[in-house]
């Protein structure tokens, strides 16, 4: 493939079979025998650290014991009772900092039980076979609106539907799933798994899906409060932080989340253009996912630049290691200063080395370097956009640190409105955290509805 | 140099490791391979009178435990299904080729003197070193009045042993069935009948599992199953106890015992020898891994004996017998407490939950709000359960805390049958 000195963006840098391999399952499933061997390594700890570490509190020793005894349905029920998205969490959870990170097998052997892989083993067959594990409760007569069909919203909707409430699930996008559908690296959820899992969840019944409906545009919060007995907001983070630099609007400069979404929605990776020299700015999982996927699409060089050291990157050390083995060059302690154009195209990006000053604060060093770049992917964080919850120029509910303020029951300051997931910002920004928020909010909504009078 | 030579009831072999009468010793091909591998002797698979029996398929069922295959093995195979003459010819040839190895021939014929009288000279004629009377097989043959059907009646055991000694000059080993209430009765009967030794245990009556689709016991033969004989590592504790009971019985004290039951390593063998066995017999482990396992058994036993200063097998045999006693003589003054090595503890919590749910609530699970496992001495009775459930070797140990006094149940005030202590 001919190289261009400037704006070298091209599709099909790799052969179709290589692309297919690059975006296939990054961690293939365990077969039955491997699962048995892995399951038999579990000590069946009491009050197990892995369960404590799981934001949804899955009884991990119990489900692993069920796998070992050949009771896969019992294992799947244990998992999915605690975590609505047990299937995708098995694939995307950073288990190395959660369940597997605290597995007692680490102490002597540095090798935890493969909890994530076992969870996948126990749940995969459920989606494949379409076996329904849960029954919908008696119809309650209550109607609940869930806005935002990401992990928090769907988890909430599923719990509410199980409790017998009638749920309408709204999403602005054409497909539901939120970050599971648009924001996770393709090789972590291959084979349209996100939709398979959602199809299974919706098969419980009682959930009406309304896509292409954006809060604040096609519907308003006031309308929802009027038409429904309760509202749950799982709006996510709609905005991407800008670098605030000169040249940010140059072609070739884009948000990493948009690149990832485009890749996830592509039905032919061979048609997806990728830069020859890609620079990713940021230190989170989005940055890592964008960097690795650029490399796997055939970028010649991918450089990830982060303004602090590896220990403060929000991407786990496991993800950082993975990026390095994939050939991503990681530069720490440098921040972007200028995006330099030539002939109307992005040419280079100038960075300044950073350091900690005497007070431990991030400071500039004055030393700079430049990197050639055909594409710059920005991944320095996302922000909540309050527009959907504003009316007449002011917020209808209280915000806190730029996110929706909720109490321990995920109730907002507005009666009858609950919220969860990234739009409230909790302990972590993980999928599993959003699921837990949605589930807890559903329980609170159910309690509130049943405490009140019949509709 | 440690000498592993085994001198047992007039039989000599270069080491105490014999293959038990079973499929591995059914024909010359296997036995030659076993001797090449280094086995000290074999007990040839049980011979009977012609016409030979017929076997079925399948023949084995097994218990796997947490991924460990064949923790227990069960078989429904009968005695040799080859003609007597073929076996006898092969025995003769193998003994000629391997004169230093022990060649013992297992026998099972109908329970009448004529049958025994007819087969014994034929066996003796092969040059075999001894016979072993199969009074043990619990399946198939017992339905025909042989095997354990004989072994379960001490009077029959004594009678047949007597016939064998009357009609043969060969050493006679009686193989005992464990499917009885008191093994000592069978052993005493064998020796009363004139037997030179006993071997035990034969297999235990068992159904190894149930096929829940076929709703039939395993192994299943065309939809039906029958109880079989259980062996392998799972039966070793039962065998050890029975060997010890015979070894410390007044009537059979110091009589030759060939130990059988779940022996897979030199350590297993050493335990049987310590409890009074003069030789050991192996089957399941060889069927699991092949004859090569004898290498480590020989070198392991040799190195163990060297380390402990036993120069010959007889030094080791029976060493643990004096320490096998009745419960009533155990020291009630002995007191131990569990100690958890915090550096080794991986905080799995198994000790806590075992003690909390099923024992004495003597292990705390938190300290200063942290996950931490510690023994409460005042509640700990020294039962050892925590040590057994702990997955980390050497993490939980038992520390002796008593003042060294000895007193036992025989004089304990709570014992209504106590002996009066002598008073001044």
Can you describe this structure?
The complex is a heterodimer of chains A (455) and B (424). Chain A is an alpha/beta fold and 455 residues long. Chain A has 16 helices and 21 strands. Chain A has helices at residues 16-22, 32-40, 49-53, 60-68, 72-82, 86-92, 105-109, 115-129, 151-162, 179-182, 193-202, 221-227, 256-265, 285-297, 317-325, 431-451; strands at 9-10, 143-147, 166-170, 207-210, 230-233, 239-240, 253-255, 274-275, 277-281, 301-305, 329-331, 334-342, 345-356, 362-372, 375-378, 382-383, 390-391, 394-395, 399-400, 403-404, 417-419. Chain A has a five-stranded parallel beta sheet, sandwiched between helices. In chain A, strands 7-15-9-10-11 form a five-stranded parallel beta sheet. In chain A, strands 12-13-14 form a three-stranded antiparallel beta sheet, with no helix packed on it. In chain A, strand 10 (301-305), helix 15 and strand 11 (329-331) form a beta-alpha-beta unit. In chain A, helix 13 crosses helix 14. The mean pLDDT of chain A is 95. With 424 residues, chain B is of the alpha/beta class. Chain B has 13 helices and 20 strands. In chain B, the strands form six sheets. An eight-stranded parallel barrel of chain B has the order 3-4-7-8-9-10-15-16, surrounded by seven helices. In chain B, strand 7, helix 3 (113-124) and strand 8 form a beta-alpha-beta unit. In chain B, helix 3 (113-124) crosses helix 5 and helix 8 crosses helix 10. The longest helix of chain B is centred in the C-terminal third of the chain and has 15 residues, at 294-308. The termini of chain B are far apart. The mean pLDDT of chain B is 96. Chains A and B meet through helix 2 and helix 7 of A and helix 12 of B.
């Amino acid at each position: 493939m001919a190289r261009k000195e400037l704006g070298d963006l091209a599709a099909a840098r790799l052969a179709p079979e290589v692309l297919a391999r690059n975006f296939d399952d990054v961690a293939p499933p365990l077969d039955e025998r491997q699962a048995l061997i892995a399951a038999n390594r579990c000590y069946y700890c009491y009050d197990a650290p892995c369960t404590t570490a799981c934001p949804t509190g899955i009884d991990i020793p119990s489900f692993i014991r069920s796998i070992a005894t050949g009771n896969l349905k019992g294992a799947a029920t244990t998992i999915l009772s605690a975590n609505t998205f047990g299937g995708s969490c098995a694939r995307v959870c950073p288990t190395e900092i959660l369940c597997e990170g605290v597995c007692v097998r680490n102490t002597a052997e540095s090798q935890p039980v493969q909890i994530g892989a076992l969870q996948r083993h126990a749940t995969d067959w459920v989606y494949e076979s379409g076996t329904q594990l849960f029954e919908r409760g008696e119809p309650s007569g209550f109607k609940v609106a869930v806005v935002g069909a990401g992990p928090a919203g769907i988890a909430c909707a599923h719990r509410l539907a199980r409790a017998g409430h009638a749920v309408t699930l709204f999403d602005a996008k054409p497909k539901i799933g939120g970050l599971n559908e648009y924001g996770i690296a393709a090789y972590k959820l291959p084979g349209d798994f996100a939709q398979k899992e959602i199809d299974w969840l919706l098969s419980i019944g009682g959930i009406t899906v309304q896509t292409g409906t954006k809060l604040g545009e096609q519907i308003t919060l006031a309308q929802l409060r009027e038409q429904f007995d309760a509202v749950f907001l799982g709006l996510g983070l709609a905005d991407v932080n800008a670098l605030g630099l000169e040249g940010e609007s140059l072609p070739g400069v884009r948000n990493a989340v948009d690149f990832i979404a485009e890749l996830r929605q592509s039905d032919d990776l061979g048609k997806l253009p990728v830069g020859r020299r890609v620079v990713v700015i940021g230190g989170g999982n989005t940055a890592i996912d964008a960097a690795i996927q650029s490399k796997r699409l055939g970028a010649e060089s991918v450089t990830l630049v982060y303004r602090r050291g590896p220990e403060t990157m929000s991407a786990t050390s496991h993800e950082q290691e993975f990026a390095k083995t994939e050939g991503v060059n990681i530069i720490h302690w440098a921040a972007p200063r200028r995006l330099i154009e030539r002939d109307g195209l992005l040419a280079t990006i100038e960075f300044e080395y950073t350091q900690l000053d005497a007070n431990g604060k991030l400071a500039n060093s004055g030393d700079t370097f430049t990197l050639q770049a055909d594409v710059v992917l920005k991944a320095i964080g996302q922000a909540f956009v309050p527009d959907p919850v504003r009316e007449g120029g002011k917020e209808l509910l209280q915000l806190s640190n730029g996110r929706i303020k909720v109490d321990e029951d995920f109730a907002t300051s507005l009666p009858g409105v609950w919220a969860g997931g990234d739009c409230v910002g909790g302990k972590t920004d993980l999928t599993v955290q959003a699921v837990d928020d949605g589930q807890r909010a559903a329980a609170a909504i159910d309690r509130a509805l049943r405490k009140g009078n019949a509709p | 140099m440690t000498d592993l030579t085994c001198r047992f009831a007039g039989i000599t072999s270069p080491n105490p490791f014999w293959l038990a009468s079973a499929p591995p010793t059914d024909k010359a091909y296997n036995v030659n391979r076993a001797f090449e591998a280094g086995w000290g002797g074999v007990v040839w698979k049980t011979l009977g009178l012609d016409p030979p029996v017929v076997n079925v398929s399948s023949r084995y069922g097994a218990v796997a435990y947490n991924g460990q295959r064949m923790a227990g093995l069960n078989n429904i195979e009968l005695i040799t299904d080859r003609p007597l003459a073929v076996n006898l010819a092969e025995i003769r040839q193998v003994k000629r080729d391997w004169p230093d190895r022990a060649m013992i021939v297992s026998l099972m014929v109908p329970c009448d003197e004529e049958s025994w009288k007819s087969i014994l000279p034929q066996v003796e004629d092969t040059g075999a070193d001894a016979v072993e009377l199969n009074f043990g097989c619990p399946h198939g043959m017992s339905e025909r009045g042989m095997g354990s059907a004989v072994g379960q009646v001490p009077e029959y055991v004594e009678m047949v042993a007597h016939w064998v000694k009357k009609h043969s000059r060969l050493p006679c080993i009686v193989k005992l069935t464990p499917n009885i209430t008191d093994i000592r009765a069978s052993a005493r009967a064998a020796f009363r009948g004139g037997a030179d030794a006993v071997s035990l245990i034969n297999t235990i009556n068992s159904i190894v599992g149930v096929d829940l689709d076929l709703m039939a016991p395993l192994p299943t033969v065309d939809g039906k199953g029958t109880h079989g004989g259980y062996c392998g590592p799972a039966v070793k504790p039962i065998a050890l106890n029975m060997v010890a009971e015979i070894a410390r019985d007044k009537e059979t004290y110091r009589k030759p015992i060939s130990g059988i039951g779940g022996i897979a390593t030199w350590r297993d063998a050493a335990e049987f020898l310590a409890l009074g066995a003069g030789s050991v017999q192996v089957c399941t482990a060889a069927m699991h891994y092949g004859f090569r396992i004898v290498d480590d058994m020989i070198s392991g036993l040799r190195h163990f004996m060297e380390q402990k200063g036993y120069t010959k097998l007889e030094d080791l045999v029976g060493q643990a017998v004096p320490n096998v006693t009745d419960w009533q003589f155990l020291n009630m003054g002995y007191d131990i407490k569990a100690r958890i090595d915090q550096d080794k503890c991986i905080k799995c919590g198994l000790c806590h939950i075992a003690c909390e749910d099923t024992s004495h609530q003597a292990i705390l699970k938190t300290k200063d709000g942290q996950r931490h496992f510690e023994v409460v001495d005042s509640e700990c009775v020294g039962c050892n359960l925590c040590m057994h459930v702990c997955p980390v070797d050497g993490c939980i140990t038992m520390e002796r805390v008593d003042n060294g006094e000895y007193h036992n149940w025989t004089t304990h005030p709570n014992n209504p049958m106590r002996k009066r202590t002598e008073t001044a």
